[in-house]
Amino acid sequence: MAVGVAAAVQPILVIAAAFGARIVAWMAAQPTRGVYLLVVVIPLGVQMKRGLLTPVLRPAEFLILLVLGVVLVRSISGSGPGTVRFGQLTAVDWAFALVFAFGSIVPLVVMLFRGHAPSADDSLKLLLPAKHYIIYRVVVAVVTDRQKMLIVINLMLATSVVVAVIGILQVLGLLGVRQMLATYYEFDPTRLSLDSVRATSTPVTSQALGTYLAVHATLAAALLSRAGKHVVWRRLLIATLALDVIGALASVTLTAALAVVIGFLLLAVLRRDVQRTMRLAVPVVLLAVVIFWPLLQERWAYQFTSSYASGGVPVSWAGRISSIVDVFWPEIQKDWLFGVSPVLQPPAFSENAWRSIENQILYLMYQGGALYAAAYLIFMAVVLQTLRSMLQQRRLDGPELALTRAALIAWALMLILGLFDPHFNLAVETEAAWTLLALATGATVRAMRADSATGE
Question: What radius of gyration, in Å, describes the C-alpha atoms of the chain?
């Protein structure tokens, strides 16, 4: 009776609840299915507007909590198909504990000590590192064999192609993509018109899009070198590589250009084969330059010859430097040890002022002071050293070796590009880096077990 009344009053809500229950049952039967959904939904939905499909949360955030709940229940019950192994804590886990302590807990305590109750935005910003770590632990726990790992990789690459195509269509102004993004995604209204001719796609920011697609392009290239004689697989990887590079460069940002160039250079070094890597990358980059040449010219004119330009410094760089020196640095100096606020709260801006801190260390210092910035540097050093150690595992080969190389590139790009933009905790890009790290961790554990089994 109650269900019938509810269906009559709120039919959409009842349908959504029934669909959600089916999804939970489907994931509970095989927890790895939750990870399959995550690697598709996060790039496409993590920046959707809050409350659009689920109350308060974005669809991807709701799914993360749902998958975590299913995995925890399965790990406790220990019954049914599908293995759940959380495994031992590693140096990465302990280094992340520092990040969480000084990037989430301490800033919250400082806010309360200053007499400021955290707002909803503050709370969500403080929980960001935990959200990404949950993804890492869930992937490590349920992706326990090679077949599952390969499915996750394939879904990641397929989704990256969708994201790239959306970005390309956005630039070309086709199929109503611009309006779709503006309607359903969380764009900053002050940047939407500026970015309308530059790809942002579902990550919403051109910097996140460029790096995310560059990482997946290098993943496709790394897999291509291990693909053997599988003709269809090789062609799909080449198509993925091409679309991801073109999609990245459609953002028309220095970040994307650097991400593509540095990503492929790092891959060439890791493979010890510069010539073959460049044969893959250079033609695609040149094709992207030809396709987007009008946009590149327009961007160049804006940076150096527009009414905003002053001298030889690009407009965007001048804005970033001015915002750091004149707006944010004076705020950071007021409490350089504990920071200012989890969410940027700068003084009043002029009409054309830059509204963000375009440097990772300074951004973290604003959020949590020097303590947070130091924790971040320690964490990044541990992650990069861990991945370097994984690459020295003798039994790591084929797709496992390729994804571990891509993981190292993803985290290295996050660190390097942090000189120009805050990439740590940047939507879509960060989730991809954590997922690759989790897959590499699982692959290394399996390789070490194989070594132990053979007595090597």
Answer: 22
